[in-house]
Design brief:
The chain has helices at 3-24, 32-53, 56-59, 61-66, 73-99, 107-136, 140-153, 166-172, 178-190, 195-220, 223-226. The chain is mainly α and 227 residues long. Helix 5 (73-99) runs antiparallel to helix 6. The longest helix is centred in the middle third of the chain and has 30 residues, at 107-136. It starts with a helix and ends with a helix.
């Protein structure tokens, strides 16, 4: 389904969570569908890229063996593809924004590109690490799925950060997707851009990208041998 799948998947999940948390549990979150969508579309980009990266090198084994080229282009192509789908899905989010009578602001002009940048660094960093390590430790693919499930529920996508007990809020900053998702919520629901959250997400992005790149670089010379 291509692009259509990138829209239908988060929309269907949003409907499920809306029924479970708004209708059944009656969670007190205003404009809950819009809140869900702004988080789920961003999460869809992240999880698709990280999951696909775990087998990206394995899936291109013949290419890696036969052609000499920068290997980091392989996970990069997957991340950029999912990023492109996310950008194409932004009109859908804007449609819901207008439906809930929240209108675009000047902060969108720089807030959206900057938040995309920080999420790209986080996503690509994870993709580099996962794609390279999985060649040597094949169970990482399954562990990645478990880790992403934990990270999803540790990220304020189906609940707001206000509902998190105070004693746990500082620990939320250790979650690399926390600041990114919160930034998307602020941009589309309130039309504001928080520079402090951006600084946190960018710091996470730079650290994760650096670590992922170093891991990939140190292991890349053995890729052809292992494959």
């Amino acid at each position: 389904l291509g692009y259509l799948w990138s829209v239908l998947s988060p929309l269907s999940m949003a409907l499920i969570y809306y029924f479970a948390f708004k209708i059944v549990l009656k969670v007190p979150i205003e404009n809950f569908i819009l809140y869900l969508i702004t988080g789920l579309f961003a999460w869809q980009w992240f999880i698709n890229s990280v999951v696909s990266s775990s087998v990206s090198l394995l899936g291109n084994a013949s290419l890696i063996k036969k052609v000499n080229f920068p290997r980091y282009f392989i996970p990069l192509s997957g991340v950029l593809n999912d990023a492109f789908h996310f950008v194409l899905s932004l009109p859908v989010i804007v449609g819901f924004v207008l439906f809930y009578k929240t209108y675009p602001t000047v902060d969108w002009v720089y807030g959206i590109p900057l938040t995309i940048l920080s999420q790209f660094l986080i996503t690509y960093g994870f993709a580099l690490a996962v794609s390279s390590i999985n060649l040597f430790f094949r169970d990482l693919e399954r562990l990645t799925g478990i880790f992403l499930n934990i990270l999803f529920y540790a990220t304020p996508i189906i609940y707001t950060s206000d509902l998190i007990p105070k004693e746990f809020r500082n620990y939320m900053l250790l979650n690399p997707m926390y600041a990114v998702v919160e930034e998307w919520h602020l941009i589309f629901m309130k039309g504001t851009f928080d520079w402090e959250l951006f600084a946190i997400s960018l710091t996470h992005g730079l650290i994760i990208f650096f670590v992922g790149f170093v891991i990939f670089k140190k292991l890349s010379w053995r890729f052809a041998e292992v494959l």
